[in-house]
Give the backbone structure.
Amino acid sequence: MLDGGAFSEVTQSIPSAPYLVRISIRLCVALVAGGLIGLQRELTHKPAGLRTHMLLALGTALIVITADSYGMSKSDLSRVIQGLVTGVGFLGGGAILKLTAEHEIHGLTSAAGLWITAAAAAAAGLGQLALALLGVCLGLLVLAAFVKLEKKLGHRASRDAANRPPPVDPGVDDG
């Protein structure tokens, strides 16, 4: 059974209603940001899809909100965000696949989508909701509107890459 001191400690940790509403809005904006980018990636059958982007956004926002709510200084909060950037880079690295036989790298756009998702979620977590949504809209514009141009340029780049000789392995003696 809780004594008076322990009960008081528990009730003091329950946030106020306005705080809960503010945090809920931030988390929901982060989820929408991750959902929008994730949906675009899912619909185009890319490796990192809807759930991945939404979970990344939620986790990023939770970490930023927790750090901000804890009362960290701006420099400490900056270090938390730097850690997130590094972690998301590692996650994005997992989405990148190099096909040795074809001399091609796939997944860079998926990795970049994870970065923009994390950035928008961090902005949402800090209460910069308009910035988060604007970033997502611009990211979606790049993902959706530049596909034709990329395919046009990519076709030429792929053809050029196919005509290039494979890289020389310095450890192999050709003579």
